[in-house]
């Protein structure tokens, strides 16, 4: 229960991440490795191997992947397949340095929104996630501090570059812990279809994953389109012997239960069933209804229907909580490039859309003196003890389990121009990016604390009744029930421009530079 929320909440957060203007100037990148390669080749009499230069994460200057001061780790698609990574959320299999602080996986039964974040050095808000070197709209449920990795299509990933040192000098303060850059496939010739199905021997946790990619490329243009589908069935803790509740091995303090547990004076009204000889006569003892107790025609019990609490009266949480939550998502993606004026001007664009659905379930909402301070008055219609009860525990099983259903839609488009300046070593690139992350959450099984507090004070049959076995009147449940709805938006747009090239040669190699701005 979230007592501070009102019925049918719709809270919309919009945030345009365009308030910072950054100018990035990098220079003095000397190709020492090229000199070493030439010297080695000369000594052996072989022709030097020319390494293709690309822009690597952590630098705006094109270099060979084996050159660079920043410690960049590269994981390609072959590595992902070899490690049996079927979803981006499973990156923990190959990135042990990214486990701390991340929300990896769907096996988080007690809360969470089903998203997957990555945290280098255990700092989620300090780990910048990029796609093709540009930003991604962040998870709107976390105030823009993390990116949901489930919105990135694994089928489109060519490689992942991980900068484990801080990248704030180039990318800003949100890259203080490092950068994870997902490089997507492009200039792809051919078609590919993948299908995966996995299950347990009990055939109750099916996992499906399907994807396709098709594309064509020549010297002047290229295009690629693809899509993927992922589905994970739920597994509840009660479905396995090792995770079922063993109430006999718990402590002697009452858990929140249904039927309720109540603290009453020891030996209340001389009732031997409620007397604990190990406790002081003035002490409070926890009592619980007898298994064979039968209410009267009005649904009320008497004090004689109760006994001292024991461990078997605890609440069986595993009967409600999932060990693996269900999830379903699909992605659509495309990119392309076309020469307009030879190599001088080339147009490029990329776009993606993802939809994800997750569902989580928890034990019914607690209503008790610990989490929701409330005293059951002696005048409550169903109170069999004739005294005020200020210490008690109850779960509203009548309302069903707490449920949390989240739908997320993420859209991203990038379009721009790039080219080489004729008769020079200079190249340039400019692009516009727009992204949006929209999430809707529906929560069930909750109730209004204020309304429940009002009904528990009643002396009529429509009073809140925690004393029986799931015997709260339907009219009272309808009165206190309070489903919750939340919606959040996160919007990102940016414009960037970069100029890079080589100024002149030095004994160790050319002096390269890069200058850029982003708004």
Strand residue content: 35-45%
Q: Termini separation (Å)?
A: 42 Å
Supply the helix-strand structural class.
mainly beta
**Averaged pLDDT:** 79
Total domains, how many?
2
H and E string: EHEHEEEHEEEEEEEEEEEEEEHHEE
- What is the CATH T-level topology of the largest domain? Ferric Hydroxamate Uptake Protein, Chain A, domain 1
Largest sheet: 10 strands, antiparallel
The best one-word shape is: elongated
Helical segment tally? 5
Oligomer: single chain
CATH architecture of the largest domain: Beta Complex
Number of strands: 21
Share in helix:
under 10%
Which CATH class of the largest domain is shown? Mainly Beta
Question: What does this molecule look like?
Answer:
- With 519 residues, the protein is mostly beta strands.
- The chain folds into two domains: 22-240 and 320-363 and 402-446 and 482-518, Ferric Hydroxamate Uptake Protein, Chain A, domain 1, CATH 2.170.130.10; 246-315 and 365-399 and 448-480, no CATH class.
- Helices cover 7% and strands 37% of the residues.
- The chain contains five helices and 21 strands.
- The protein has helices at residues 32-44, 77-82, 168-171, 449-456, 474-480; strands spanning 22-30, 72-76, 127-131, 134-135, 157-163, 178-184, 190-198, 207-217, 221-232, 235-236, 261-265, 284-289, 306-308, 322-324, 327-341, 345-362, 392-393, 402-420, 427-444, 484-506, 509-518.
- The strands form four sheets. Strands 1-21-20-19-18-16-15-9-8-7 form a ten-stranded antiparallel beta sheet.
- A hairpin with a 3-residue loop joins strand 15 and strand 16.
- The longest helix has 13 residues, at 32-44.
- The two termini are 42 Å apart.
